[in-house]
Write a structure and sequence with these properties.
The protein is mostly helical. It has helices at about 1-15, 20-35, 40-45, 45-55, 70, 75-105, and strands at about 65, 65-70. It has one domain (about 1-110). About 65% of the residues lie in helices and about 5% in strands. The protein is globular, with a radius of gyration of 14 Å. The N and C termini lie far apart (about 35 Å).
């Protein structure tokens, strides 16, 4: 059930322009990361972890009239949720980088992600 919910959230990332929907997506992702053990996330959901990191870090830029969606959001709650997601993913990556390595290779641009994953 976690995989399906996570995939649903990731599919909504690019489907909506409403900041309140983005806040709900971020909250859902953070909830998943909070209740899932880091090793379980790395072993069972590596693709979702990598995609979530890329989205939350703004690597997959979702733009509306050439403005990054995160710049349009309130500084408070939404950015705090995105920061919480990045911190949880940093913890997962730090402990289980080798488990994630297989999926990260297929996401070539992720190797330069700001929250770790340095594969040089």
């Amino acid at each position: 059930m976690t995989r399906e919910y996570w995939d649903l959230l990731l599919s909504l990332c690019s489907a909506s322009c409403d900041p309140s929907v983005f806040e709900a997506i971020l909250f859902g992702m953070l909830t998943i990361l909070e209740i899932t053990e880091p090793r379980v996330a790395a072993e069972n959901f590596p693709k979702q972890v990598v995609e979530t990191q890329a989205w939350a870090a703004g690597i997959s830029l979702i733009t509306l009239t050439d403005v990054d969606i995160f710049q349009r959001m309130d500084v408070g709650k939404t950015k705090m949720l995105a920061g919480g997601i990045l911190m949880k993913i940093k913890e997962i990556v730090a402990k289980h980088e080798r488990l994630l390595l297989g999926d990260i290779i297929s996401f070539g641009s992720i190797s330069s992600a700001p929250m770790g994953l340095n594969l040089q």
